[in-house]
Every structure is written in structure tokens, then in C-alpha cells.
Write a structure and sequence with these properties.
2 domains, alpha/beta, about 35% helix, D-Maltodextrin-Binding Protein, domain 2, about 350 residues, 14 strands, 14 helices
Length: about 350
């Protein structure tokens, strides 16, 4: 599994990962450690760069690791990082681990995403794909069997298809397979996989026979290398876009994105507290900059309320909800605000 450190964004203040990067020591004051989703990675990276340009953040050191959502939660529930980037809600097993280790947290939605099915621009035959065809191609039973384009759609050529996608530690992997195949782990394994979305981009970009899936921001930042397919799903044939996600038409492949904050570290480390407040105030512009889908302005104020009221835990109960509209997902995200606040 590849680990990518955001050295380019935060300059010399970042400590390069050593051989022990996959099992870092507990965070110390003065260094903010963040790991997790490669989808959320560019958003958080933009916020870090901006924060370091302020007087409050100039001396703060950051370690930002692109490990995938599942690996990020392993670090987070072990107390090794203060913040976890996540492209899905925390699941029931991760909740149990956090609880067993005494890690309380605040769950903050920061953006929406449109999981994007993409091909190489030199592909002349595929313009759209249905959720049924995606399942035929990506489910575990397709492994070693569905190997050519015409096995997915009879109108397509009988040439070999190369598949590219997230690794199993990725929240994108979990969400896509739950949405398309009905189970987060029901995926074929004979494809080029990585928790680093840049690897997925390059895999598709180098081969006219390639098809893959990744977060919308990564696609939108690489439109000269990738071409998105419209997806025929619950609302008919719809292309991934900011407007179609906001209009709740791109279903079932739209989803919320999160950051999770270790509560004791938030309360005990001034740098963490200042950074998280800055993230919520300035984050929307970096969501847009990273080409993801911002939440409504009023919703960001609710996110700040969740932080300031110190509302602990998850609103999703360890579940991975698929196909929720933006309104439904946000209603669930803020359901805790209607409950007594834990103290």
C-alpha cells in the first residue's frame, strides 16, 4: 500500500515518513498528524497550506498521510493521529475499536462527492454505463471471467478491458461496492489497485482499454487525461457533476465526505483546536478548489455548531448508507444536534 506525504503543499514543515510511518508513535504537541482518505487528502492539504500562512499556523508542523479511509481509522482509533480524513462514515468495527481504546471523537461532514466512472479519452465506444453493467464488471464473481468490453455491453468491442480502482483500505472502494454490488467487500481483485488516487488516474490515462472509478475531484482535476461516463442509475442517465449532485440526481454514487477529530486531543492541544476552527471557516473554498461539491453555507454553520457544542460520536451508527440524497445525508449528520449533548 502506497503512502503519499503532502510535502509539496506544506513545504519543509513536514517530517518525511520513515520506515515506521505505517505505525507512528502517539502525536506530540506542536505536530498535527492526519491520515486517511485520498479523496479528502487534497481538501485538507489546501487548508493546511492556508493555515500555515497565518500567524496562528506558521510554526505548526503537519504530517498528512494518504493511507485510505480504513487505514486512517486504524491510526485514529489507536490514538496515533489527531484527525482522520474519511470518505465514508466510521463503521461498526471501527467504532468498537475506538470505544475499547477510549477514543471519543467529533464527526464533521465537510463536502459531497460524486464517485466517477472514467475511461481513457481515446476510448471511442463507451459514453455511458448502467449500474447493472458496473455490477456485472466489478462484482467478485466477475473475477477472471469478465475480461473484455463486449462482455459488459454487447455493442462494445471484443478487446481486453483493463480495470483500475481504489484498494480495499479506501472508503471509495467500500462505498462503490456497497452501492453497486450490495456489499462493501464484494469486489473482484484482478485489477490495478491503490489507495492513492493519483495511481488510479495514471492507470486509466496510460491505456485506451482502461476503465476505473475514483472521486469526482480527482477526475475534475484531470479532464485532459480522463473522460467520465454518464451512469444510468436510479434517476436515469446522469453525468457526474457538481450540479447533478446538488440537485440530488446523481444516485447512487454521490456521498458525504468527513473529517473526524479526536476529542481529548482537540481539547488538550491548542494547535489542533485552532486548526479545526480554521478548517471549518475556510474549508469551503478549498472544497471548491479541489473540485468537490461544497455543502450549503447554512450547513457549514451547523457543522461549526456541532464542533462548538462538542457533540461526540457518529450520526450513522456504524452503518454505510448508500443512495441517500444530500438532504437525507445531512439530516442524519446533524441528528445528534437534536439530542442532549454528552458531557
Amino acid at each position: 500500500m502506497a503512502l503519499c506525504l503532502l510535502a509539496a503543499l506544506v513545504g519543509g514543515s513536514v517530517t518525511l515518513p520513515s520506515a515506521e510511518a505505517s505505525a507512528p508513535s502517539p502525536p506530540k504537541g506542536g505536530t498535527i498528524r492526519i491520515s486517511g482518505s485520498s479523496t479528502v487528502f487534497p481538501i485538507t492539504g489546501g487548508v493546511i497550506r492556508a493555515f500555515r500562512g497565518t500567524s496562528a499556523g506558521a510554526s505548526v508542523r503537519f504530517e498528512l498521510l494518504e493511507t485510505g479511509t480504513s487505514a486512517g481509522f486504524r491510526d485514529f482509533c489507536s490514538g496515533k493521529v489527531q484527525i482522520s480524513n474519511a470518505s465514508r462514515p466510521i463503521n461498526s468495527e471501527e467504532l468498537k475499536t475506538c470505544t475499547a481504546r477510549g477514543v471519543n471523537f467529533i464527526e464533521l461532514p465537510i463536502a459531497f462527492d460524486a464517485l466517477t466512472v472514467a475511461v481513457n479519452p481515446r476510448n471511442t465506444w463507451a459514453k455511458a454505463i448502467s449500474t447493472t453493467e458496473l455490477s456485472r464488471l466489478w462484482r467478485r464473481s466477475a473475477e477472471g471471467k469478465i475480461m473484455r468490453w463486449n462482455q459488459v455491453n454487447a455493442a462494445w468491442p471484443a478487446t481486453p478491458i483493463r480495470l483500475c480502482g481504489p484498494g480495499k483500505d479506501s472508503g471509495t472502494f467500500d462505498y462503490f461496492n456497497k452501492a453497486i454490488n450490495g456489499n462493501a467487500s464484494d469486489s473482484r481483485r484482478d485489477y490495478t489497485s491503490s489507495e492513492d488516487d493519483a495511481v488510479v488516474v495514471n492507470c486509466i490515462a496510460k491505456d485506451p482499454q482502461a476503465l476505473g472509478y475514483l472521486g469526482f475531484g480527482w477526475y475534475a482535476s484531470n479532464t485532459t487525461k480522463l473522460r467520465a461516463l454518464a451512469v444510468n442509475g436510479r434517476k436515469g442517465l446522469v453525468s457526474p457533476s457538481v450540479v447533478n449532485v446538488q440537485n440530488e440526481r446523481y444516485s447512487p454514487l454521490s456521498r458525504p465526505l468527513f473529517i473526524y477529530i479526536n476529542d481529548s486531543m482537540l481539547r488538550g492541544q491548542d494547535d489542533v483546536r485552532r486548526f479545526v476552527k480554521f478548517y471549518l471557516q475556510k474549508g469551503p473554498q478549498y472544497v471548491k478548489q479541489a473540485r468537490f461539491v461544497p455543502l450549503p453555507d447554512a450547513t457549514y454553520r451547523l457543522v461549526e455548531t456541532k464542533l462548538y457544542r462538542n457533540v461526540l460520536g457518529t450520526s450513522f451508527g456504524g452503518d454505510l448508507p448508500v443512495g441517500l440524497t444530500i438532504g437525507q445525508a445531512l439530516a442524519r449528520s446533524f441528528s445528534q444536534l437534536r439530542q442532549p449533548v454528552a458531557r
